[in-house]
Write a structure and sequence with these properties.
alpha+beta, Protein Transport Mog1p, Chain A, 3 domains, eight-stranded antiparallel beta sheet, 10 helices, rod-shaped
């Protein structure tokens, strides 16, 4: 199968829809490349043919040889009929015959660097045993140089406007053109599919970006941004100063009396030891604290009270079965004092010792509570003036904590 037939078969398969445009271009270029390479090999392998020997001829004999031209379409061969060549005998008395060199051999001698496709092979003319004329051979008409001739259209006859014409075989540049020289118009249906695919990809990308911005960017939460307030922000809360540490704990006292110091001033009536019944009838302490003492199982108590000038001082030691019950009673005492109107005074409190205070126009009150092993210690001070009452309370608090430091230090 020749390369022309192979190209015809490729065109038929493309028209039938058996090949794509890319496959057609690749196979078409491969066939044309093989056709050129085959022509080059044939040209390289063909030996130089010597000039045919002619038999001796007479001077009166002349020979008209048809023009030598490369094979081509009929119209081109007809147009080249003008390039006839007259061959005559060399001399009247010579026995040898002069032969005109065909133009294609002159081109090979004048232009050694022939194109990769080679020159077209001329039709071999058989030698004619005719005599040369007496006047010699007529000078041949100068033939047009094929290098300046118009390129021949070697496109197959089945090719039309749909495909570009093939370059002539003597032009080596067509090999370097590649598939980019063969361009077809894409079908409208394929373009629409590509456009729809691009739109779909853009939509999916937009949705993915929205999900990322709403749910993933801020750690997976969909919390809307908080509006910034133009009002000035409040200053940060001051750092709370730690409470001072009291002295280290000492051994547990043997009884309530040894657990308490003696307040300054004159002893008041109503002091001494008491039990739950006497405590409830005298109402020395708030009602909720007395109920807590009943629940905790208070065994006995002691009250030391004095009068220091205008200030009344009191010290309570409430004994319970264990430290847990004592801690519950001390916590209830602090709640009762705050519900009664007193507030926590951190300036006077210690680590493990809570101090409460209240001041009005007629009465100054300062009270403290802490846990000493299984006992609850209560310090009470009230008077008409702030300075005297505060001074007496601070003196009594310092002496009591020095004698029996707290063992439960849960407050900060």
């Amino acid at each position: 199968m020749t390369w022309q037939e192979e190209l015809r078969r490729l065109d038929e398969e493309l028209a039938a829809g058996n090949l794509t445009a890319d496959e057609y271009r690749a196979r078409r270029d491969r066939v044309l490349s093989m056709a050129v390479s085959t022509g080059d090999q044939a040209q390289a392998q063909a030996p130089a043919q010597p000039a045919p020997q002619q038999a001796p001829s007479t001077a009166a004999d002349t020979q008209i040889i048809a023009p030598v031209s490369p094979p081509g379409p009929p119209d081109q061969q007809a147009s080249s009929a003008e390039a006839t060549q007259v061959v005559s005998a060399a001399d009247a008395g010579g026995g040898e015959r002069t032969q005109a060199v065909p133009p294609w051999q002159q081109q090979q001698q004048q232009h050694p660097n022939s194109p990769s496709g080679g020159f077209p092979q001329p039709m071999q003319q058989p030698p004619y045993a005719q005599h040369s004329p007496a006047g010699g051979f007529a000078q041949p008409m100068p033939q047009q140089n094929p290098w300046g001739a118009q390129p021949q259209d070697a496109s197959p006859p089945w090719g039309g406007s749909e495909f570009p014409p093939l370059a002539p075989s003597n032009n080596a540049d067509w090999i370097s053109q590649g598939p980019e020289s063969f361009q077809t118009q894409p079908s409208s249906g394929k373009g629409k599919k590509i456009a729809f695919a691009v739109v779909a990809v853009l939509v999916v990308a937009g949705l993915g970006f929205g999900v990322w911005a709403l749910f993933i960017k801020d750690g997976g939460g969909a919390t809307p941004p908080v509006a910034q307030s133009s009002s000035p922000q409040p200053p940060p809360a001051p750092t709370v100063k730690p409470l001072p540490e009291p002295p280290a704990a000492k051994p547990e006292p043997g009884d309530n009396s040894s657990a308490l110091v003696t307040p300054a001033g004159t002893t008041r009536a109503g002091g001494g030891e008491f039990d739950l019944d006497k405590l409830q009838s005298a109402k020395y302490l708030p009602t909720t604290v007395i109920e807590k003492l009943k629940q905790g199982g208070m065994t006995e108590g002691l009250l030391k009270t004095t009068k220091d000038g205008e200030v009344t001082l009191g010290l309570f030691a409430l004994e319970l079965p264990n430290a847990q019950a004592a801690a519950a009673v001390a916590a209830e005492y602090g709640n009762a004092e705050q519900e009664g109107g007193l507030t926590v005074n951190r300036n006077l409190s210690l680590h493990g010792v809570q101090v409460f205070s209240a001041a009005d126009s007629s009465q100054q009150v300062y009270r403290a509570v802490y846990v000493l092993y299984s006992r609850v210690i209560v310090i009470d001070s009230f008077g008409p003036t702030k300075d005297a009452t505060l001074s007496s309370f601070k003196t009594l608090l310092t002496a009591q904590v020095q004698k029996a430091p707290p063992t439960e230090r849960t407050n900060n």
